Amino acid sequence: MLHKIFPDAERAKSIFRMALEREKSIFSLDKKKFPTIVAENYYEVIKELATSLLFLNGIKAIGENAHKEIIDALKKYAGCKDEEISFLQDLRLKRNKSMYECKQINFSYVENNGDLLLKIIDKLKKIVGSKIK
Question: What span, in angstroms and rounded, lies between the C-alpha atoms of 8 and 60?
């Protein structure tokens, strides 16, 4: 559930920095050997950037569907297209299955979607970065 809060720029900055650190770690991993971990990290970077953006806008997601709602909020707060939201929701489901059911994510998924993931990450970094400076 999304809740209105006072905008929290300091928390947003902290989460933004963590997302940037996590993004760097993606490039040090062998995507062929560790596709599941790479995909999970892509998801975490996007979720952290989106969470940072929400904190800047005075929004906090809590509860069972918080991650779903964070991604859905990217349409309003980051101008993401419906196709991007659907893609990110699919990534969220894949990440959840890997985390909670130990389902592996194939290298082909990371290979075929890496450019789109990086495009979304760059878009979010620009939006959040412009708001926290």
Answer: 10
Q: Residue 106: which H helix or E strand, with range?
A: none
- For residue 120, give the amino acid letter: I
Among candidates 38, 79, 73, which has minimal Cα distance to 58?
73
pLDDT bracket for residue 41 (50, 70, 90): very high
* Both tokens assigned to 30: 């062998």
pLDDT over 80 (residue 133):
no
**Half-sphere exposure for 24 (CA within 13 Å, toward CB):** 5
Dihedral sign (CA 37, 41, 42, 47)? positive
Question: Using CA atoms in the order 63, 47, 120, 110, what is the torsion angle rounded to 10 degrees?
Answer: -110
Amino acid found at 16: F
Cβ–Cβ under 8 Å, residues 124 and 49: yes
Give the mean pLDDT of the chain.
96
Phi, psi of 61 (to 5 degrees): -100, 130
